[in-house]
Design goal:
With about 325 residues, the protein is of the alpha/beta class. It is about 45% helix and about 10% strand. The longest helix is centred in the middle third of the chain and has 19 residues. The two termini are about 25 Å apart.
Length: about 325
């Protein structure tokens, strides 16, 4: 059960619920990479269709768009799908061929057979701001589908809890996600090291973390994906760290340099991307980590007592 602390950080939930899963459970092998198995759903069937294919960046973008709008895709024309993904119509045709179909009509026919759904209702008279909110709500629904299988998140929680210190990486657009996670994690984890500024010293800081005993690095990776993030994760793995990544898609460029990738889509309807789902997934990871830190609840209660004695917050 979660207990709120004085500054709104989430409670530890230690010793209850998911905390009972402390060992390597059955079926956990193979949970690396794309973040484990999704429950049976249109999005899960689509993602299964794409796995095992070597896709170009443009094709990964199409695949990502299809997973996000899985209920609508079987009813879209190639032109509509191209517009949704922000690519050309011939790119959609080449994508279908890359998956082994004669063309997009054959792919769409297959999708209607394996992922039958009713076309979603039109948003009606929503203005552009409301549409952005509706898109984020859909992202959160998709995240809920992913979390129906809690094993990848539980595994990530164990890895994060066991790493002393725990480096947390997030550059550029993802820096705020990394900072938010590190801020709350530091209340329950004995040694959290935030890596939110790039440059030539970032490898030095990874080396220092490894020398101090780090075993896992947590990365938040959001579009546009900086080349430096991919390079840094590759270096972290070469240094012996297990890389857990929260990214906008299982097809993101960081997937190839991550040991466990947990997807959470971003909204793209406004001038700047919105990241409600990645932020929420970060909080879920905090909860899972707390479940594997036996003194997490005591640390939170200690912080609350100190905050009250210092008059830290306005009641």
């Amino acid at each position: 059960m979660s207990t709120p602390s004085a500054d709104g950080s989430m409670g530890a939930g230690t010793g209850t619920g998911t905390g009972a899963d402390t060992g390597t459970g059955p079926g956990e092998e193979g949970e690396t990479g794309a973040g484990g198995h999704l429950p049976d759903s249109p999005a899960a069937r689509l993602q299964a269709l794409f796995e095992g294919h070597r896709l170009t960046p443009t094709q990964r973008r199409i695949a990502h768009s299809m997973v996000r709008r899985a209920s609508e895709v079987p009813f879209l024309s190639s032109v509509e799908l191209a517009e949704l993904a922000g690519v050309s119509q011939p790119s959609v045709t080449r994508f279908a061929v890359a998956l082994g179909f004669d063309g997009y009509p054959a792919l769409r026919k297959h999708l209607r057979e394996v992922a039958p759904t009713e076309p979603s209702a039109e948003p009606g008279s929503y203005n552009e701001y409301q549409q952005a909110v509706e898109a984020e709500i859909e992202n959160l629904r998709h995240l809920a589908e992913v979390l129906a299988d809690p094993r990848p998140v539980r595994r990530a929680g164990r890895l994060l809890a066991a790493s002393r210190p725990l480096p947390v990486l997030g550059l550029r657009a993802a820096a705020s996600q990394a900072y938010g996670f590190a801020y709350f994690a530091a209340k329950v984890h004995p040694d959290v090291r935030l890596l939110h500024e790039g440059g030539t010293m970032i490898h030095d800081r990874i080396d220092a973390a490894v020398r101090a005993g780090a075993t896992t690095l947590l990365c938040f990776a959001l579009p546009r994906h900086p080349r430096e993030v991919v390079d840094t994760l590759a270096y972290a793995r070469s240094a012996g760290l297990t890389v857990v990544t929260v990214a906008d898609s299982a097809f993101a460029p960081v997937a190839k340099v991550s040991d466990l990738l947990l997807p959470a889509a971003v909204g793209t309807g406004l001038a700047f991307d919105t990241a409600c789902a990645p932020m929420l997934l970060g909080r879920v990871l905090l909860e899972a980590m707390c479940d594997d830190l036996p003194d997490a609840q005591a640390r939170l209660e200690e912080f609350d007592a100190r905050a009250a004695s210092r008059g830290l917050f306005v009641e």
